Amino acid sequence: MTSMVLDVRQVHAKYGKREVLSGVSLQVPAGEWFCLLGPNGVGKSTLLRCISGALTPSSGDLLIAGHSAISDPLAAKQRLGYACAPEQLPGLLTGRQCLEVYAQAKGLRDISADVLALARELRFEGYFDSFVDTYSLGTRQKLCILLALLGEPTLIVLDEAFNGLDPASALQVKHHLQHRLTDGRCAVLLATHSLDIVEHYADKAALLIDGRIVREWSETEIAAFRVQGDSAMETALAQAAS
């Protein structure tokens, strides 16, 4: 694994004539949990769609484990685990069928053992053979996360993936991600509004405002926020956004 798992280089992206990303750059090395913060509508999901290959930037480049998502998308996607939005899941498939299709797309003969173990911990096994369109939001969210973890991805990308999860399930997922990070198996990029996740789990964080990264916080700064108390990160975020 190359040490720099994600390298976003001066990415611009548009919807029609409206520019949503205006020269975004960031780097995420192996073993790092990076949180992307920002209000609704500032471009967080757009950046994640560019990383996933669902949207092509108007300029710039994105490298996943050294492979360009633009010029070498197949190699980049082979190293990516991207949790789609719950509403994008195929409602007429069962959870098991979704996992099997994703596993085959990743070149796996079977569903990964560690993903099956996490499914048991999340009490998802009882939903394996139910159709996705019968799932609650939380159950869909669990499936999205399980799909993203198949095939030992080098980069795991999550967009508000803890929304709808019960506290016990959210904690199980966080611990699972931390285990992968500690082993140096991947990097995690999470777009979130939750400052609690930033304060307790992130190694680094960045604030995206109007398509630009306006502030980044280092591991040392985030560690200081943990010592200072619950309002420290909130104050820093408000100051950076003003």
Compile the SSE list and pairings.
Layout: E1 4-15, E2 18-29, E3 33-37, H1 44-52, E4 59-64, E5 67-68, H2 73-78, E6 80-82, H3 95-105, H4 113-121, H5 137-149, E7 155-159, H6 167-182, E8 187-191, H7 195-201, E9 204-209, E10 212-217, H8 219-228, H9 230-241
Parallel strand pairs: 3-8, 3-9, 6-7, 7-8
Antiparallel strand pairs: 1-2, 1-4, 4-5, 9-10
Overview of the molecule:
The protein has 242 residues and is α/β, with parallel strands linked by helices. It contains nine helices and ten strands. β9 (204-209) and β10 form a beta hairpin. α4 (113-121) packs antiparallel against α5 (137-149) and α8 packs across α9 (230-241). The protein is globular and about 50 Å long.
Weakly predicted, low-confidence segments? none
Q: Proportion of β residues?
A: 25-35%
Based on the coordinates given, report the CATH architecture of one domain.
3-Layer(aba) Sandwich
Order of helices and strands: EEEHEEHEHHHEHEHEEHH
* CATH-defined superfamily of one domain: P-loop containing nucleotide triphosphate hydrolases
Rg computed from alpha carbons, rounded to a whole number of angstroms: 17 Å
**Count of β-strands:** 10
Q: Main sheet, how many strands, which sense, barrel?
A: 6 strands, mixed
Overall SS class? alpha/beta
Mean pLDDT across the residues is 93
Instruction: Estimate the global geometry from the Cα principal axes.
Output: globular
Q: What is the CA–CA distance across the termini?
A: 39 Å
Tally of contiguous helical segments: 9
Helix content: 25-40%
What name does the CATH topology of one domain carry?
Answer: Rossmann fold
Strand order of the largest sheet: 6-7-8-3-9-10
CATH top level of one domain? Answer: Alpha Beta
GO molecular function: ATP binding
Keywords: ATP-binding, Nucleotide-binding, Transport
Organism: Steroidobacter flavus
Pfam family, one: ABC_tran
